[in-house]
Amino acid sequence: MGQDERVLASSFGAAATAYAEHRPDYAPDAVRWALAAAPGPRVLDLGAGTGKLSGTLAALGADVVAVEPDPAMLAELRRALPSVRALAGSAEAIPLPDAYVDAVLAGNAMHWFDMAVAGPEIARVLAPGGILAGLWNVLDDRVGWIAGLERVSGGEAIGPRDTFRSWRAATASLHLPRAGGAARFGSPEQAEFAHGQLRTAESLVATLGTRAGMLTMPGEAREAALGRIRAFLAQTPETADGEFALPMLTGVLRVRQR
Ligand SMILES: C[S@@+](CC[C@H](N)C(=O)[O-])C[C@H]1O[C@@H](n2cnc3c(N)ncnc32)[C@H](O)[C@@H]1O
């Protein structure tokens, strides 16, 4: 991972509270699909952040352990989900014994992992037949106004993995084969599930402000991007007044350990 990627990957902690308040959780059907046929109930939420995915997993009855490298994100997770076991660690150094979990899930986080190191490490903590799945909440840019929002936001505000048209290609480029090759994991499968988040124009601006591209922008460029987004939402009929459902999909990329 280069210096720029490292800066992006470690940008979230400064906004941990806003992150917890404004980022969406995950479509339960997507989480169920990710876990289908896992050999048991124990799930590692890797890069767990403030616990958005851990919360959905716990609600579905999984036995969750969360691992997160950023101290501020981890503190927020422990505050929000005191019953979830939460550990400091990273995808490249997972603080768990061999064959300990039946599934490893990562919500909007797998693209930050150095899969050449993280792949063998994930394989180590997975029980035989265990599942590795990445989940991404993406904006559904097949909806007209979302495509408009993407245009005014610019590439940094809404990155290529954040919209439907590009997430499949972007996640495929994670090269899960690098995680240990066909010898370690079976073929990747992908699926998308409808999801939504109730927002107002102002709370959507706050949500977009927690994206890595925004968090790492110089102050002036960030304010200019947020200003363009605010103006766009004010003049768009679907978003100008009151609450609306932000059209999203939870995309899942899943492989099974051989
Ligand atoms: C966009 S946030 C997603 C957080 C949470 N999973 C969610 O769904 O809201 C990405 C998270 O990945 C974490 N992260 C970055 N690099 C990581 C790594 N190498 N190993 C594990 N987690 C990492 C960040 O600290 C951050 O909490």
Automatic annotation (TrEMBL):
<dbReference type="Pfam" id="PF08241">
    <property type="entry name" value="Methyltransf_11"/>
</dbReference>
<dbReference type="InterPro" id="IPR013216">
    <property type="entry name" value="Methyltransf_11"/>
</dbReference>
<dbReference type="InterPro" id="IPR020596">
    <property type="entry name" value="rRNA_Ade_Mease_Trfase_CS"/>
</dbReference>
<dbReference type="InterPro" id="IPR029063">
    <property type="entry name" value="SAM-dependent_MTases_sf"/>
</dbReference>
<feature type="domain" description="Methyltransferase type 11">
    <location>
        <begin position="44"/>
        <end position="133"/>
    </location>
</feature>
<keyword id="KW-0489">Methyltransferase</keyword>
<protein>
    <submittedName>
        <fullName>Type 11 methyltransferase</fullName>
    </submittedName>
</protein>
<comment type="similarity">
    <text>Belongs to the methyltransferase superfamily.</text>
</comment>
<dbReference type="InterPro" id="IPR051052">
    <property type="entry name" value="Diverse_substrate_MTase"/>
</dbReference>
<dbReference type="GO" id="GO:0000179">
    <property type="term" value="F:rRNA (adenine-N6,N6-)-dimethyltransferase activity"/>
</dbReference>
<keyword id="KW-0808">Transferase</keyword>
